[in-house]
User: Which sequence fits this backbone?
């Protein structure tokens, strides 16, 4: 008896390849595929019909990986019809087409979900959006130290730097951008950058004390960076700063935290002001 029921809706259901040719009345386990590509659904995610009779998940059959196991072997010549259904599909193929994720080709919507096996990619989707109206919007983007590329424009040679890059014409917004290594190149912020500094985030707090003598050991220099010969800059040498204030220098002695230096400059100015006031009183 042929399957009688609701027809397939694009994007919501995925029809499985027939396994009826392997039915012999004794075999109970069969590999599941779609267009000859192995799939790994959950039993509850399947609608299975044998000879027109709907099979109950976890009772009439179970699924282990890509193998469906029937409690009773389908008879020789029995018909088979199977679909993966619902908003979430577990897919182990080499790639997932846009049409498999949503009703609109080219867009992966937040209401759809795909869980891929290791090494599988989602490709050719166009914009990945947080909602049906946003473009390139994400609640949080986490970088694990490797390169983040292919989102806008990747500036540099992949594998030689850790970078998240874009251009003045790129569009996208992020609730939180966490990069574990560095942002390569210039970073321009249209708004204001704040650093967490509330007392509740700190412990073992003590006055910085006298800083003028240390500050006087620092030397400002002019220079041109090796990757930008056309622009003259003014700053400090990280190695020199590290000899006086190692806490302001990165672990690899390549970068200086200029923002943190404000605290010692404040104390140095206060100390210098005290000296000036004493001199004025002496006159």
Assistant:
């Amino acid at each position: 008896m042929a399957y009688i029921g609701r027809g397939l809706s694009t994007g919501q259901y995925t029809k499985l390849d027939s396994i009826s040719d392997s039915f012999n009345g004794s075999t109970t386990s069969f590999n599941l595929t779609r267009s000859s590509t192995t799939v790994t659904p959950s039993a509850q995610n399947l609608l299975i019909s044998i000879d027109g009779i709907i099979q109950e998940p976890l009772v009439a059959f179970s699924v282990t990986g890509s193998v469906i196991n029937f409690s009773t072997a389908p008879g020789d010549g029995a018909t088979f019809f199977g679909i993966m259904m619902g908003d979430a599909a577990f897919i182990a193929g080499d790639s997932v087409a846009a049409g498999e994720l949503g009703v609109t080709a080219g867009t992966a919507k937040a209401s759809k979900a795909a869980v891929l096996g290791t090494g599988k990619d989602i490709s050719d989707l166009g914009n990945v959006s947080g909602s049906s109206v946003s473009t390139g919007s994400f609640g949080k983007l986490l970088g694990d130290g490797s390169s983040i590329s292919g989102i806008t424009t990747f500036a540099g040679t992949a594998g030689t730097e850790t970078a998240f890059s874009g251009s003045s014409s790129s569009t996208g917004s992020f609730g939180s951008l966490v990069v574990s290594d560095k942002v390569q190149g210039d970073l321009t912020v249209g708004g204001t950058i704040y650093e967490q500094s509330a007392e509740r985030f700190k412990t073992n707090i003590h006055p910085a004390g006298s800083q003028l003598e240390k500050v006087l050991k620092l030397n400002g220099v002019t220079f041109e960076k090796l990757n930008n010969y056309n622009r003259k800059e003014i700053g400090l040498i990280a190695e020199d700063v590290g000899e006086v204030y190692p806490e302001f220098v990165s672990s690899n002695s390549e970068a200086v935290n200029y923002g943190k230096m404000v605290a010692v400059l404040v104390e140095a100015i206060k100390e210098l002001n005290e000296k000036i006031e004493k001199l004025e009183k002496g006159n």
